[in-house]
Amino acid sequence: MSQSSSSANKNGCSSALHRACLELQGAASNIVKLIDQEKNGSEAAGKEHNEYQDSIINALTVENFKLKEENGTAKSLLISNLPEYFGDEFGIEIKLIGEIDIAPFISIFTRRQSAKLSNESMITKATETCTHWQEKIKDSAWSPFKKVTIDGISKEIVDDNDVELKKLRKEMGFSVFMAVKIALEEINKHNPSGRYPVAKLWHVKENREAKLDEIMQGMLKKTTRKRKAGDDSTGQRPPHTK
């Protein structure tokens, strides 16, 4: 093979390699572009999906708030207009949430009863002291609470080391202290802005606010029982159906 022929072959190989390199670079560039497009498309789709989820969550939050508001209104109307339906009979009663239990006050004053004071005077004294603390709870300037984090969730609880509460516990004992603490907890949960007792329909056995369906079931049972008792007293029987 002549030198010129060898040189031509080398040049041809170089040209072929060069073209192959260019083609590979082009292919690689196209692949990168496709990956970028797919990535951008996924991000766009993901963003759209997240926005859709957020819109659903927001809508549900609004509806849940409306439902709670409507339930609260319905319960308030029941308390105002049909209080006779509630009591121990079906385990749902009207409870003043945030009202201090006076029993521990009466108990402590009775135990400390002086020979100079009658039992009636002791009860009066207990009532006055209990009322004093109820008014103190209403005072927004007094804030015996502290923030704590439990399982990553921040919440506000009664601060047992509050100066006033520590003094109360020392002077009046644990039971009186707990009566005030429980009232504070209830107020902080159910009426933190007003800080006065609020009437709630209460599930006695489970010590919680009753659900609307539980209330309606109880009312239905009581209504049915009243009607049955009325029929029995008049000698009437419900119509027989085949």
TrEMBL record:
GO process terms (BP): gene silencing by siRNA-directed DNA methylation
Protein name: XH domain-containing protein
Limits of the Factor of DNA methylation 1-5/IDN2 domain: 95-227
Ranges where the record places region Disordered: 220-242
InterPro entries according to UniProt: FDM1-5/IDN2, FDM1-5/IDN2_XH
Superkingdom of origin: Eukaryota
A matching Pfam family: XH
